[in-house]
Design goal:
Blueprint: E1 2-4, H1 10-20, H2 29-38, E2 43-48, E3 51-61, E4 64-72, H3 81-95, E5 100-102, H4 110-115
Parallel strand pairs: 4-5
Antiparallel strand pairs: 1-2, 2-3, 3-4
Bound molecules: coenzyme A.
The site of coenzyme A has 20 residues, from strand 4, helix 3 and helix 4.
């Protein structure tokens, strides 16, 4: 079941994010709290048997939508949960007037997004700088 995220979901969402990030320590709690306060309709979790097993958070700038966070618990990956989360996030973004959804993909996740119909945009490149 895909539903809106609640403050009580934050600890489980944090552990899913840590698990998919191979244990690298990063703290999402303040980010998740801010997302819930600012755009609760774009904060989703997947729940199964009372357990939170996935998360999707979107963002919006005008007609452009962004996937800010998408993660499925490792033991549940490959069972359609990521697809369901993206379906619902896309629906809610469309309702807000979003025309194009963009996402930063890794080599590990690009196959998933291709399966959902996303295409590499040759004109957009990701750049970064340590500051
Ligand atoms: C990427 C991720 C969100 C996908 O969620 P998931 O629940 O495992 O994916 P689903 O089971 O819903 O798969 C949906 C479709 O994508 C395909 N797919 C999933 N992972 C894939 C991969 N790595 N390569 C190619 N195709 C893939 C599935 O076969 C399925 O296709 P189908 O509908 O034609 O059968 C999840 O694996 C994850 O959390 N990974 C680690 C974190 C991450 O990379 N997040 C994204 C960063 S932006």
């Amino acid at each position: 079941m895909i539903r809106a995220m609640a403050p009580d979901d934050i600890p489980q969402v944090q552990s899913i994010a840590l698990a998919v990030n191979k244990g690298e320590a990063y703290d999402l709690r303040s980010f998740l709290g801010a997302c819930l306060a600012q755009k609760p309709d774009l904060c989703l979790v997947a729940e199964d048997g009372g357990e939170t097993v996935g998360v999707a958070i979107g963002g919006q700038v005008g007609t452009l939508g962004m996937v800010d966070l998408l993660a499925v618990a490792p033991s549940r990956q490959g069972t359609g949960i990521g697809n369901q989360l993206m379906d619902e996030l896309s629906r809610r973004c469309r309702e807000r007037g979003v025309k194009r959804l963009v996402v930063l993909v890794s080599s590990a996740s690009s196959g998933f997004y291709r399966a959902l119909g996303f295409e590499a945009d040759e004109d957009l490149k990701f750049m970064s700088k340590r500051i």
